[in-house]
Write a structure and sequence with these properties.
41% strand, globular, alpha+beta, 149 residues, 7-stranded antiparallel β-sheet
């Protein structure tokens, strides 16, 4: 059943799941933000409960730090993180839980990215921030990178 507070994008990628996973897990700096934005991964403890942190940078000098924890790191299949907590399970103002999944499909791989929000207001805020063009641009960048790998 679809979550009414969920936003998502999906792509069929003409590449093997192992290739797609490698790009998903190990090459985030190359696809995580829509160009001309960039990202610096500052922490990535690849396990449930592990810290994840990054700084997204915009073309006009904007800096958006993000801090959270992994809820799941299912090697080769799925990464789940949330900003509801920071390191050592310190509560934070939750905005969303992010889920990035891959699954073999025919001759390629299905990539799906989801943002699940606690409230309709947070979902609508994410839409107003540009979820659709932003996450679709990222999915296209990710697909191109995987297919060119």
């Amino acid at each position: 059943m679809a979550d009414s507070n969920e936003l998502s994008v999906t792509r069929f990628i003409a590449a093997a799941a192992a290739t797609v996973w490698d790009v998903l897990a190990n090459r985030q700096a190359e696809w995580w933000c829509p160009v001309p934005w960039s990202v610096e991964i500052t922490a990535q403890e690849r396990r449930a409960g592990g810290r994840c942190a990054m700084v997204m940078r915009g073309p006009a000098g904007e800096e958006v730090p993000t801090e959270g924890v992994y809820l799941a790191w299912d090697e080769g299949r799925r990464i789940v993180s949330t900003d509801a907590f920071t390191g050592d399970w310190q509560p934070a103002g939750p905005f969303m839980t992010g889920i990035w999944e891959i699954e073999p499909e025919g001759t390629g791989t299905r990539y799906t990215a989801r943002a699940r929000h606690w409230t309709a207001e947070a979902r609508d805020q994410h839409l107003a921030m540009g979820f659709e063009p932003g996450w679709n641009a990222v999915a296209d960048q990710f697909k191109a990178l995987c297919e060119g790998a």
